[in-house]
Amino acid sequence: MRLIKRLALRTIRPFSLAISVPLVLAASLASAPTAFAAPADPASAEASASADGPGEDPPLVSPEAVRDLGVSPEASEPEEVGSPTSFAPRASRNTIRLAKYIARSGDTLRAVAYRYFTSPSLLAAVNKLAFGPEADPVLPAGETIQVPIARGSPSGFDQGEQLLPGPGMHMSPNLERKWGRPQVVRLFRQAFTETFKRWPQRHPALIGSLSKAGGGKLGRHKSHRSGQDIDVGYFTREGNRKEWGRPSVKDMDMERTWFLVDYLEQTGHVAAIFMAPDVQKGLYTYAAGRGVKAERLRALFQYGPPGRANGSLIRHSPGHRDHMHIRLWVPEDMPEIRADRAT
């Protein structure tokens, strides 16, 4: 009965666009982005703020960006505290700032991107560099490039899709927190589906929060506001698992975890991944045992490889022992970058 009431309420909330749940599902499966025109229900978002966990808050700006580029650490915009306007989609808001960086000897595109919490594909797009999946071109030493950095707590997106239950995905019940930018949602859906195809006998990915429709403040999060972040429970080898929990590293399914991380990383669209140190070490050991090159492992893992590179893709942030946090920055989803390039 509670589920029926919840679904009924979804058809009358401002972001429902006055359509029923079956039509929302059909629209999502057709991969047609939804244009948002009204603010979401802030009370609903706040009420479900703790439904996916303790409200972890991974950083939006890397410590290397503060140290090397002179950018200030992120802070919530004043209007995002206690103002209903913060829940409206803001397509014109600049969520990215550009910082100048002089390439060092040995720098590659991916290494610089991961050091400063941006995706290789977006770094290449901003600097008009050729780039493709799995590519990692060397940057000429002494060349000045522009590095995209998050501005404040990035919020808002005017085109979005909802990630709904499907093959390889088990959702937490708060579907109003499953909205993201179109290419982000499609890439996550594809990655989870491909993982499930290879291991259909094991439990599906356990999906937590993305963003609410149109973005904006989501509980206590500074992230999860721009349709580019997702929480995923760690895989185990169980056939039927529906809760995150805190599985021991030895009980985790590193085979599937590595497949998912490797699949997403090779697209060039991953800006950051957050995992607990012991999980990183277990995943590093698995990947090294599979013959992954040491140089790549040093670029990926903060914990595990000896002599690791400074500024890795996968890092520790408190609150990620029961799930991983993945952030995608896809150029096609980020029209706001054009405004910064023009200034």
Summary?
The chain is α+β, with helices and mostly antiparallel strands.
Properties at a glance:
alpha+beta; Membrane-bound Lytic Murein Transglycosylase D, Chain A; 2 domains; 3-stranded antiparallel beta sheet; 29% helix
What is the topological layout?
Blueprint: H1 2-10, H2 21-29, E1 34-35, H3 42-47, H4 63-69, E2 96-102, H5 109-115, H6 120-126, E3 144-150, E4 159-162, E5 169-171, E6 179-180, H7 182-198, E7 205-207, E8 229-233, H8 254-265, E9 270-274, H9 277-289, H10 294-300, E10 314-315, E11 323-328, H11 336-341
Parallel strand pairs: 5-7, 9-10
Antiparallel strand pairs: 1-4, 2-3, 4-6, 8-11, 9-11
Distance between the first and last residues' Cα: 54 Å
* Total number of beta strands: 11
Alpha-beta content class = alpha+beta
Low-confidence stretches: 1-31, 37-55, 76-92
Major beta-sheet overview: 4 strands, mixed
**Overall number of structural domains:** 2
Q: How would you state the average pLDDT, rounded?
A: 78
Side-by-side strand order of the widest sheet: 8-11-9-10
Order of helices and strands: HHEHHEHHEEEEHEEHEHHEEH
